UniProtKB/TrEMBL annotation:
Name of the protein in its database record: DUF2007 domain-containing protein
Organism of this sequence: Pseudomonas eucalypticola
InterPro entries according to UniProt: DUF2007 (IPR018551)
Domain DUF2007: 1-65
Domain of life where this protein originates: Bacteria
Any matching Pfam family: DUF2007
């Protein structure tokens, strides 16, 4: 197993796990149980996504593409130009 990405939040981690799963990559979240200790533990580096060694490069490519995604032109609400609303 290789640690391939450090998500900023539990929500981001769950979204990435779902995206990776839809592409056939089994991911495991390390540190999920430590999130409740924020305040007593350092807030950075608690969470990490791990995948099998043979899928690590592909998973990194998928996450990079996901993070680089932009909204389609014309899909942005007029009141929030430049902001992606999910």
């Amino acid at each position: 197993m290789q640690r391939i990405y450090d998500p900023e939040s539990l929500l981001e981690a769950e979204m990435l796990i779902g995206m990776l799963d839809s592409e056939g990559v089994a991911a495991h979240l390390v540190g999920r149980d430590l999130v409740g200790g924020i305040g007593d533990l350092p807030a950075i580096g608690l969470l990490g996504l791990t995948v099998a060694n043979d899928q690590a490069d592909y998973a990194r490519q998928l996450i990079a593409a996901y993070n680089a995604a932009l909204p389609l032109p014309g899909e942005e609400p007029e009141s929030f130009q430049g902001v992606l609303v999910c």
